[in-house]
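Action item from last week, closing it out:
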Amino acid sequence: MTSEVLLRKLAYLRQLLIDLAPYRTATLSEVMAEHYKLERLLELLVAAATDTLFHLLAEKGKSPDSYRNAFKMAADEGILPPALSQRLQQAAGMRNILVHLYEGIDYAILRDSIEPAWKDFTQFITQLETRLDE
């Protein structure tokens, strides 16, 4: 992946985090009123991050078969720290629940996932920015 493509993908992730930031302290009623927007933001964060990882892993001859596996393989390949990978695997699980409606959405869990998602995807961006310096 060229540095220009990586920069573009990281800029998109930053924009999603900017859009998510106002909800970091949202009440349950605010989350319920804006749940479609929040669900979509969380879905897009996972999709954009894993799209980036699919490219980076392909350069190493690896092909993840799921969003969750992309985060796991990124840790295995030294792209992400293991603890961050674990948390992002959980974000991928949340994304699957939101997209596929495996079970009803618990809006309290959705609310409680906003701040961790903001922190974890911010750390994800920081980790990948270090690749630009290599």
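Closing note: The radius of gyration is 15 Å.
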